[in-house]
Amino acid sequence: MSQLFEKLDNRRTGIRLYGIAPPKLASTPERLRDIAAEQVDRLSLLAPDGLVVYDIQDEPGRDGQERPFPFLPTVDPELYARDALAELAIPKIVYRCVGTQSREAFSRWVDGVQSEASRQIGVFVGAPRDQSHHSGLPLAEAYAIAGSASNLIIGGIAIAERHVAKEDEHHRMLVKQDHGCRFFITQSVYDAGSTKSLLSDYALSLQASGRSPVPVVLTFSPCGSVRTLEFMKWLGISFPRWLENELRHSADTLERSVDLCEKVFTDVQDYAREKGLPIGINVESVSIRKSEIDASVELYRRLNSRLDQ
What is the mean pLDDT of residues 298-302? Predict the structure, then answer.
């Protein structure tokens, strides 16, 4: 049995993931093969428990602010994970934006999953905020339909920043657990305080309702420049003022971000252990810049080592 499936089945701490975005849709077939080969080599060396493949969506109306980087469509994440990365012998956790799909299309996908012999893992995401008025599939319905596929493990999103604003993210997590979510992946973490607040309320709610926790996988992303910092803030990622100052005024923003991510993780890890919550790591590499890819590898190695301490 894969280590990832064993950890999910037994709600164990220590899940280790690495996350990527699929290549741009405009990439040539030759370039796609090169990118996939580079990723296979990198992941074979890192040997994470699983690979996260994101479903990148455009969000032109987020907070009424202009997107810092232009949106470029990507290859379908499931096709990329299944075909281009087929030789990578670890489970793939594929994100699926159900809020942009019809009920019929999603049901056909679930039927296809059921026909597969192997276990699969998916994380469902609702419609982008600016598209919430569209007639896509609500998350609750997606969970209900997916429940018929016994070989599909479902994960959910947990966002500490949303908890700061609404103070109900822990309730969302419990509802998602009731709908079959077996683990959660957070948005990128740079604010230890808001993340600990979410974990605190989640732990208290579990205790009050007599339920057991599922693994919470904390996402970390190196930040290579002030422009990337602005983009991450546009995405809704929270940066405490002191930490943002450190990044903005560092002689090497990328190296400093790796150091800070390690410090934030250590802080949250200690707190999660106190609360008896199983946690894991997911290190993102969504940049095409070699320096940022190398930084994600360094960060993964550091956090991987921390998990064993």
Answer: 98
Predicted confidence (pLDDT) at residue 232 exceeds the cutoff of 60: yes
Give the integer Cα–Cα distance in Å for 40 and 165. Answer: 39
Rounded to whole angstroms, the Cα distance separating 275 from 269 reads 10
Report residue 241: phi and psi, to 5°.
-55, -45
Which helix (H) or strand (E) segment is 158 a member of? strand 152-158
CA 267 to chain CA mean position, Å: 20
Overall CATH class of domain 3-307: alpha beta
Q: Are 174 and 211 in contact (CB under 8 A)?
A: yes
Question: Domain coordinates of the chain in residue numbers?
Answer: 3-307
Q: Mean pLDDT across the chain, nearest whole number?
A: 92
The string of pLDDT tens digits covering residues 178-188 is: 999 999 999 99
For strands 50-53 and 279-285, give the pairing: unpaired
Task: State whether residue 30 is helix, strand or coil.
Answer: helix
